[in-house]
Amino acid sequence: MKLIQIAAVALNQTPLDWTGNTARIKQAIEAARKQGATLICLPELCLTGYGCEDEFFSNDVQQRALSVLEELVPFTEGIVVSLGLPLLHGGALYNCACLLGDGQILGFVAKNHLAGDGIHYEPRWFKAWDSRCVSEINLQDQSYPIGNLVFELDGVRIGFEICEDAWAARRPGRELSQAAVDLILNPSASHFAFGKQEIRRRLVQESSRAYGVTYVYSNLLGNESGRIIYDGAALIASNGSLLEEGERLSFQDVTVTSAMVDVDLTRMNRARLVSFQPTPGVFQENTVKSDFRFPEVPFRSIQAQPAEWERSDAVKEEEFTRAVALGLFDYLRKSHARGFVISLSGGADSAAAAVLVWAMFKLGLTELGGEGLSEKLSYLEEDQRGDTCSKLVNQLLTCVYQSTRNSSETTARAAARLAGGIGADFLNLNVDAIVQSYVDLVSQAIGRELSWETDDIPLQNIQARSRAPGIWMIANLRSALLLSTSNRSEAAVGYTTMDGDTCGGLAPISGIDKAFLRSWLEWMEQTGPLGVGKVAELDLINQQEPTAELRPQAAAQKDEVDLMPYELLDWVERAAIRDKRSPLEVFQLAQIEFPAVEQFQLLEWIERFFRLWSRNQWKRERYAPSFHLDDENLDPKTWCRFPILSGGFEQELAELRRLLSSV
């Protein structure tokens, strides 16, 4: 009976952090050894970091990567380790997995299918490997095979699918199955998105069943390079059964998920597959044999059941909280910021940002403990660190309410109540005199008084912009990171003031729609994440209708009057932008989706959306970095590109109006 203890490792790496990345790889190898693992799969490009961008083209990066690889080789004595790095060969750059065994480099497998859609841009840097081709690469006067390889160690046959390879129509797994491999390793850099884990589970389980193998999936973890959050998913399946699933969205640097695999049982199950059709000689020239012997190990099983929150009825709310909290935490510590500053308006968006920071500390303390969290924030002054959530939030989160004559007592009380409830440092600034000084200055310069009847938008915008210098100054004084608080629904239609409420170095909620944010805030008030709890002080926030509160109070300004109902706005955004429907198609579908709304009202709202979307691309281009959460992202730098100047759907909208007028 051939038993092998296999480990899938999640790593929280940082691009170009040679010392830190190397130390975490060593830590991962040691942790996996302690669990008895003799075959360890580390994530894609974990040596350099996945998000190096154009630095992949740097000769220095290539040389340092090889230097670190050589440093890690001795740490594989008695075990087998797969790790990812870029490799320059034949004048081209390849995304590779290197297999190390018993203190030796055994060979390099190059990625066949590059991720080039959505947030991924691999074809900019890497070349796809030509399927069956095998070559030789010389490193330090040694020659090693590179290509689509099968490694045979102690009679156990091992193949690779690197991340996107497993999602392609012509994936390597089919040929690897025909070559009768026993294990397929999948080192990945797979970004977080709502609901994606269930898709991964199906992929890994079905791959193991269809190919008659043990399938090992490892992933990166955390906010690696600023915009993308990796959830650290680790999965091990055999013959259609999921053996182990690791913890996701952990605050740890390293997580190890291990399972005992019976290779002989896997082979017998494969032999029973009617679909298994071995091809004699396939990969014969691509097989790398080694004298390595897997040590005999006693049968053991380390259970790593999915966390309870993964099975929650509110799994999207749980994922959102935990993913953004982890993204914020890594951004904080990797940027060496000394906390966060938020302009807390008393409305939903800024409240969501503040609660997410609070949840970040709650989750971090729960998992790491006070000492562990303090160690990760060791760059801070000792009095800024603490072992309780209340102390950490008070030291590292500053909320500022900035009122004008148009601000209400309702939002003032809501902001103060929330800040007090989560323990944030709360400041109250009245900026009305600053606003009026600008109004008077401009009125004098142009020779007339400004009025709400003729100058509505400028008078609204100056209030938002007058709040920016003070909040930036507070962030500077505290060496803290200013969070902007615009959501995706506002980004779609430009319902935001540039250099006003868009000010900030990070936009943590600009990847999520307003309708979800409002329901999430209600959930946070009433329930909250498992192990974290609720924030009852959100009650005054949740009782309000969304308002910019920039017009005089007598105007009773409401966002959904200025725009349209947020539920409909978000639906139109998905239909028009995600699904690329024309104005006419959106209108036709909207009549089915919203039958109670009059046709002419629908037309007005749909026309308003397309006009505002086209007019405000320049605003989206200037947003602070945001987190990717789903396939409805509007970030033009990573997901959704649109011309800054365009025809604005004028002809399409005119045709729609003519059609409706003839009805």
TrEMBL record:
Its EC number is 6.3.5.1. Pathway: Cofactor biosynthesis; NAD(+) biosynthesis; NAD(+) from deamido-NAD(+) (L-Gln route): step 1/1. Residues 4-265 form the CN hydrolase domain. GO terms for molecular function: ATP binding; glutaminase activity; NAD+ synthase (glutamine-hydrolyzing) activity; NAD+ synthase activity. It is an enzyme of class 6 (ligase). Deamido-NAD(+) binds at N461, E490, K619. The active site is at E44 (proton acceptor), K111 (for glutaminase activity), C163 (nucleophile). GO terms for cellular component: cytoplasm. L-glutamine binds at S190, K196. Catalyzes the ATP-dependent amidation of deamido-NAD to form NAD. Uses L-glutamine as a nitrogen source. This is Glutamine-dependent NAD(+) synthetase. The gene is nadE_2.
